[in-house]
Design brief:
Helix content: 25-40%
Low-confidence stretches: none
CATH class of the largest domain: Alpha Beta
Order of helices and strands: HEEHEEEHEHHHEHEEEHEEEHEEHEHEH
CATH topology of the largest domain: Aminopeptidase
Largest sheet: 9 strands, mixed
Radius of gyration: 24 Å
Strand content: 15-25%
Number of helices: 12
Number of strands: 17
CATH superfamily of the largest domain: Zn peptidases
Bound molecules: zinc ion
Shape: globular
Distance between the termini: 14 Å
Length: 407
Amino acid sequence: MPTIDPARLMGDLNHLRSIGAYKTGVHRPTFSAHDMEARRWLLRRMEEAGLSARIDGIGTVYGRREAAGPKMLTGSHLESQNHAGWLDGALGVIYGLEAARAIAEDPAFADCAVDVVALADEEGHFGSFLGSKSFIGVLEEAEIDTAANRYDGRSLRSALADVGLAGEPRIVCEKGRYKGFIEAHIEQGDTLIGSGAKIGVVTAIVAIWQYRLVFEGEQNHAGTTSMKRRRDAGLSAVRALARIDERFPLICGERTVWTAGRIALEPGAASVIPGRAEALFQFRDADEATLERLDAELRAIVAEIDMQGPCRASVEVMAQSRPALMDEGLQAAIEQAAEIHAPGKSLRMPSGAGHDAQYLARIMPAAMLFAPSIGGISHHWTEDTAEEDIVLGAQVYAEAVAQALRG
Ligand SMILES: [Zn+2]
């Protein structure tokens, strides 16, 4: 049975935390100086662990070992959101590295390989899952041509040139090499903390269905237009969203979430009746039937608002992804590993956030292990996990990878 080294694990995580440190978190946006320092540091740590490693043309760091027997892929991402937490991504990468070391040190696994990957730009500073898409072979050069930094507009091509990666070949995952991919990640929610569980076994990564709701009324004077005559697009939007909030709970799943992340009124002035309102609205769930039901209900509500007047209402689909189902066999491996090191303390749950595993799941069996997030906080510098939970999670993770190798 592989045994992790808690001091080596925490030493690596804390070293990574020192690169681009910001308060108690980190600021390591993709291709910043600190991000590249972290990538180069990881490369050296992979080599010290006996992996042959390189950084490819999209910034992904990949370390692998040659072996005749079964192989597993581990890892996550290295960059952070701006001024964000120290564990988002880093935890999964260092868990992978520690599992690779612990399993390599166990003579019972001498014929096996545990490879580690830090997939570039999961946090989307330049695009959407660029590293994952590149690694599974679906990232076109044209997408790299058009990608730009979402904060300062700098093109991805010039960023890659600045960090010396322009022209470097991109690594595409070798078909059939792996029995599967297990990604560890902090939960970023409060399900584990709330239930007292220590290990989350992810069943599926939710789909996001994103819409634009548009309400068209008549822009007019707020003082001289009678209530009877006016066509207030803002009020129609509010009515629609209130109706969603009344009716979605009657048909949603246990963990469905919905959000109107942006509501805009035109012209948006104190004394002008809004002539147009637009709401960006999304819901997330891991179950396709639930997604379809909510989609139908949303359309029905918008149609009612449109029919009842006085404003026109319409709905436009912006994106409808599919839920990524996690592999049953790998979920069982994580659960069995949890039973050994944290009996009765694992919990099956969907992931409400997107992760690299949803892309890797397209080319191999994939699964995810969650560690508890204190207060359910993430994408903020206060993000944290108790050290004993970090260490326990790493041991369960290494055991799960070992079980998967032998499974
Ligand atoms: Zn992440």
